[in-house]
């Protein structure tokens, strides 16, 4: 594995030390924590935006969709930027974009201005996550890769969890629409702090150790994405369909639980917060398991199966919502813990930024379409506290997308147990 991730002839330097690896991982986690708070803090604000600013479901879906919209293209470009400029400069650029976007979002109650701020936050947030993925691969090329990805993702999910449950830990802030947005600006500062610390430590580490990802000074043609093989594109399809169930549901989840299940805002926020909470706890564990035992595509297929019954259970049964939300939380821990590190095995190390960018681009396209579609469906069927059945159309849409995720994971498992496998089912790494 080492020779696939490190420049030839660079073995005269030692691998990164244990202490340096965990320090750099902690710094990456700080930046990701702030970035993911910025992504998820609109969802718990949705009921307040509806009451005080008279935003419709479509308006709220737009605020979340516009986060994803630029990333259909920009994350692919940002992947190339990471490959050309390296992770240090990329972290700094993307961290600044997030912070500036959060400030703009809090400036005005006008939908257009808020959407403009969200667009900047999205452009920086997803790109920062890509740089974080490449940064982890850069420092953990020799082993414990999936576990390190899991810990990085746990920090990100902690940011999401902090945002989702913010009505519970900061109830006073939810008396006025702007106050939660200003809290988001404060969390955005973590992106700047993490980027600054990463620059210092990574620069020192580059002089002392053999690091995995090396910035390329030559031109990287975007046409290279078409040279990726079936395993990559099946992972990309799984990414679209799996996240298409998770994040758009989070956008409307608290509003749905309040209006369809008649829960308090605090209880609804805690239930939706179960998704990132299970993820932040479970991702390192699942990462450790696949590092040790392999069977990555099989793990992803099982995780996708978990979310298929979630939406009918929420929409049509009296089963306590905590049960389907817990199922979704376990799936949200399992699939991403395996999916993103899998790219390291299926693409060349010099194209990790491009591959991560392409994967995120197709994911963002799916999120734009699905957020707008669910918002439209809820308005079209008049979903509200007095018409809970209006949410059924959206629940069936989510169910169909979940079935597609299972089929994508099954296709990946078929390829990775055949003659063109990359080792997703067989590669294991020892703890170090």
In short:
With 432 residues, this protein is mainly α. The chain is 74% helix and 0% strand.
What's the shape?
A: globular
Could you tell me the radius of gyration in angstroms?
Answer: 21 Å
Bin the helical content: over 70%
Low-confidence stretches: 1-10
Q: Helix/strand-derived class?
A: mainly alpha
Major sheet details: none
Based on DSSP secondary structure assignment, what is the total number of beta strands?
0
Q: Write the element-wise H/E pattern from the N-terminal end onward.
A: HHHHHHHHHHHHHHHHHH
Ends apart, CA distance between termini? 15 Å
Strand residue percentage: under 5%
Mean of pLDDT: 84
Helix count from the secondary structure assignment: 18
Give the SSE layout.
Elements: H1 2-5, H2 18-40, H3 46-52, H4 57-68, H5 71-85, H6 87-105, H7 111-139, H8 145-164, H9 166-169, H10 178-208, H11 230-260, H12 265-272, H13 274-293, H14 296-307, H15 310-316, H16 322-346, H17 352-380, H18 392-416
Helix pairs in contact: 2-7, 2-8, 2-10, 4-7, 4-17, 5-6, 5-7, 5-17, 6-7, 6-10, 7-8, 7-17, 8-13, 8-16, 11-12, 11-16, 11-17, 11-18, 13-16, 14-16, 14-18, 15-16, 15-18
Structure overview:
- By secondary structure, the protein is mainly alpha-helical.
- The protein is 74% helix and 0% strand.
- It contains 18 helices and no strands.
- Helix 7 (111-139) runs antiparallel to helix 8.
């Amino acid at each position: 594995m080492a020779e696939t991730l490190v420049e030839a002839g660079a073995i005269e330097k030692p691998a990164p030390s244990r202490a340096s690896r965990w320090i750099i991982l902690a710094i990456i986690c700080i930046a990701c924590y702030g970035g993911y708070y910025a992504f998820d803090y609109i969802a718990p604000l949705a009921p307040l935006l509806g009451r005080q600013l008279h935003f419709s479901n479509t308006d709220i879906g737009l605020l979340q969709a516009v986060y994803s919209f630029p990333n259909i293209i920009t994350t692919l470009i940002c992947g190339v930027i990471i490959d050309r400029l390296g992770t240090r400069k990329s972290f700094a650029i993307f961290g600044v974009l997030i912070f500036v976007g959060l400030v703009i979002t809090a400036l005005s109650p006008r939908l257009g201005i808020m959407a403009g701020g969200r667009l900047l936050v999205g452009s920086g947030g997803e790109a920062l996550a890509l740089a974080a993925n490449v940064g982890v691969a850069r420092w953990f090329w020799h082993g414990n890769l999936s576990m390190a990805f899991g810990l990085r993702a746990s920090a990100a999910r902690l940011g999401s969890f902090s945002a989702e449950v913010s009505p519970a830990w900061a109830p006073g802030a939810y008396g006025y629409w702007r106050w939660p947005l200003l809290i988001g600006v404060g969390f955005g500062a973590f992106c700047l702090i993490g980027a600054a610390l990463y620059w210092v430590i990574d620069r020192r580490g580059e002089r002392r150790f053999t690091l995995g990802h090396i910035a390329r000074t030559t031109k990287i043609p975007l046409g290279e994405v078409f040279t990726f093989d079936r395993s990559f594109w099946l992972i990309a399809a799984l990414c679209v369909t799996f996240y298409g169930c998770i994040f758009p549901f989070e956008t409307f989840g608290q509003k749905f639980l309040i209006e369809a299940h008649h829960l308090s805002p605090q209880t609804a926020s805690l239930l939706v917060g179960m998704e990132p909470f299970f993820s932040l706890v479970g991702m390192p564990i699942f990462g450790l398991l696949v590092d040790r035992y392999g069977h990555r595509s099989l793990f992803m297929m099982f995780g996708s199966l978990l979310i298929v019954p979630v939406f009918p259970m929420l929409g049509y049964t009296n089963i306590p919502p905590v049960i389907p939300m817990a199922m979704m939380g376990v799936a949200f821990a399992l699939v991403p813990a395996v999916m993103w590190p899998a790219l390291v095995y299926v693409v060349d190390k010099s194209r990790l930024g491009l591959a991560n960018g392409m994967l995120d681009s197709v994911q963002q396209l799916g999120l734009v379409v699905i957020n707008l579609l669910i918002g439209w469906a809820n308005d079209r069927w008049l979903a509200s506290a007095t018409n809970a059945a209006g949410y059924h159309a959206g629940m069936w849409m989510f169910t169909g997308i979940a079935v597609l995720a299972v089929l994508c994971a099954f296709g990946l498992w078929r390829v990775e147990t055949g003659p063109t496998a990359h080792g997703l089912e067989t590669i294991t790494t020892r703890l170090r």
